[in-house]
């Protein structure tokens, strides 16, 4: 308990909601779905000696869901999203992590995720 108080006492806390949209091309046409995720980020310009991390992420929400065919649903999972948020900072090129974390809550332009940044997509038989 004392460790948690020590870590949160020396950091900047950032909070926002963001929309996660998933657009899929299917043989029947384009389908899409969206969800809203709550993000909390605690930033410490002097990374913890214990973990070596500058940012501690907490994401709350549900997977983004899209019906890609009758009876077939595709889920974009939340896992690893904090790494995607960190990588999506490219739209804030030249800024420090602390600077772009202060600006993300007011970001209104969509950020497309490609390659390794695409969330894990799963479906069930």
Keywords:
single chain; 125 residues; alpha+beta; three-stranded antiparallel sheet; 18% helix
Q: Which regions contain 5 or more consecutive residues with pLDDT less than 50?
A: 1-8
* Average pLDDT rating: 80
Oligomer: single chain
The biggest beta sheet is recorded as:
3 strands, antiparallel
Instruction: Round the Cα radius of gyration to an integer and report it.
Output: 17 Å
Within the largest sheet, what's the order of strands? 1-2-3
Helix content: 10-25%
Q: Can you describe this structure in just a few lines?
A:
By secondary structure, this protein is α+β, with helices and mostly antiparallel strands. It has helices at 2-9, 81-87, 97-103; strands at 12-26, 29-43, 55-60, 64-69, 72-76, 121-122. A hairpin with a 2-residue loop joins β1 and β2 (29-43).
Describe it for me?
With 125 residues, the protein is of the alpha+beta class. It has helices at 2-9, 81-87, 97-103, and strands at residues 12-26, 29-43, 55-60, 64-69, 72-76, 121-122. It is built from 3 helices and 6 strands; from the N terminus they run αβββββααβ. The N and C termini lie far apart (44 Å).
